[in-house]
Amino acid sequence: MKLLRNISKFGRDEAGALLVFWAVSLVMIFGLVAMSFDFGRLASTQSELQSYADTVALAAAGELDGNSDAITRATAAAANLISDTQAFGSGGQALGGGGDYTIDFFNTLPPSDLSGMAAGQTNDPRDAIYARVVVTPKTVGFTFANVFYTLSGQPRGNDQVGAVAVAGYTQYACDVTPLMFCLPDPNYKADANIGDMILLRSGGQGAAWGPGDFGFLDPSKIAVDDKGPCAGLKGSKLDQCLIGAEGAITQCFAQRGVDTEPGQKVGIEDAVFNVRFDIYRATMNGKKNDPLYPPAPNVIKGIVGKKKGGGGAQCIGGNEQVSPDTVGLPRDTCFANGTCSRYGNGNWAAGRTNYVAVNYGGTDPHPGATTRYEYYLAEIAAAGGAGSGQSILSGLAETGRPQCSNNQSSDPERRVVIAAAIDCNANPVQGRTTNIPVKEFFRVFMTEPVGKDGASPPNLDLWVEVVGSAGGPGSGTGGTSGIFHDVVQLYR
User: Fold this and answer.
1) What are the C-alpha distances in Å from 157 to residues 40, 154, 329?
2) Burial (Cβ within 10 Å: 0-12, 13-18, ≥19) of residue 392
3) Nearest to 331, CA basis, from 415, 414, 214, 448
4) pLDDT single digits (tens) 457-487
5) pTM of structure
6) Which residues contact 190 (CB under 8 A, 6 or more apart)?
7) What residues pair up with 468 in beta bridges, in sequence order?
8) Of 134, 228, 254, 339, which one's alpha carbon is 20 to 30 angstroms from that of 155?
9) Beta strand 483-490 with 160-174: parallel, antiparallel or unpaired?
């Protein structure tokens, strides 16, 4: 009986029951903690791979500028410039080189991020806008989770992780002069040729264009600033404003490939460019007192108008004449001796000597100025700056300041224009052409008024000096005469 009572008492005794539950719970807690290490390593590896995919895609997309070698450069940039590491996945820890991912290119994206990218894939470097990078999946070994799957009879979890990223390239142009020209070769860079003179001659329809031929960018594709001077204008009036006016002309717009128009264009004549030199005639005759079309703060050009009866200088009209005692900035010596035709070499020493002798009596007031643009700026600075009315030249037929217009630009870059440089050999231009990639945007300084060459129909001749890069696929950013932004961003 005593034994039975002890057994019964033991069965009713609840002391120590908590230890049983605690032991079971402790096993579960340690199991969850152990599994968290596995899943933490899985998440960490996925994060590392995604970071690598993002960086590779951005590096590749940054080269997709529409030129013929864009995909080659994009592939090389991805493989050679980007490296990373992963800690827990299978294989080596180092990530770098084409073996860790696949890359392909697209000219469009689907409307939804949830949609696949089957459409739009391209191998044409001129069409490629987006780069998709798919990182080779890595296996993360489940050390503790495998015990759980075995004991619970649950199917094995996914221990492979990968990553996908899509990046694209867009170029934005702001306040750009709608001008383009053909390069002598695809490697001709603005910053490597600062100070060189170029003769830009208007190209026409039909025949292929050669180095130095220029045309216009299609203004119908440009987003005109709705608060700027060109708002509401159309046709030739819009063309004239975009080339001749000063101020916030265009909004920033995405520009991958440009559409071109002939240089021999109805409504675009030398007068549209020459308002910068205080010359208002033909279609621009009514703009001489319009503050939207001011001349530059330095307009030394070597030509003058007829004198009024009172001795004041008239506006230069159809009867311009060579100045009796001043000259404009000279051309490169090679143009004078016939050793260059459209692209000069920056050597203007002989012309400089004559410029100083005629305008300054032989004593050079700005010996430190190397280029013509630097000399132009030095003349402005010595006469009190761009906002001053102080004469640049004294006692001569030209003062150097505007004498026709009542206005004067406060921007020394008024004679600087932006021109889109095109490789016309790789991308034949014959007047109207669409979606032409830009090699680089040049900032060029107009050294003298634009003239006509006497051909029939006449060509316009723009004599310009290379100031440097304005931006775009080349390098740098523009001044007040234009700003360009290269934007590379992730889309997925």
Assistant:
1) 14, 9, 78
2) buried
3) 448
4) 677 889 999 999 886 554 433 334 456 667 7
5) 0.72
6) 421, 440, 441, 442, 443, 466, 467, 468, 469, 470, 474, 476
7) 443
8) 134
9) antiparallel
Amino acid code (one letter) for 397: A
Q: What is the mean pLDDT of residues 315-344?
A: 90
Please say whether the dihedral angle defined by the alpha carbons of residues 39, 41, 43 and 46, taken in this order, is positive or negative. negative
Tens digits of per-residue pLDDT, 200-252? Answer: 987 766 677 788 887 777 655 566 666 677 777 777 777 788 788 887 666 56
Joined tokens for residue 131: 């780069």
Quick one: tokens of 221?
């594709």
Beta bridge partners of 85: 94
The C-alpha atoms of residue 386 and residue 114 are separated, in whole angstroms, by: 56
Alpha helix (H) residue ranges in 263-371: 270-274, 333-337, 349-360
From residue 46, alpha-carbon distances to 53, 75, 95, 114, 323 in Å are: 10, 23, 13, 20, 75
CA 475/CA 16 separation, integer angstroms = 78
Q: Using CA atoms, how far apart are residues 450 and 273, in angstroms rounded to an integer? A: 7
Q: Is 118 helix (H, G, I), strand (E, B) or coil?
A: coil
* Among candidate residues 207, 217, 258, 263, the one with its CA nearest the CA of residue 458: 263
The helix (H) or strand (E) run that includes residue 216 is strand 213-217
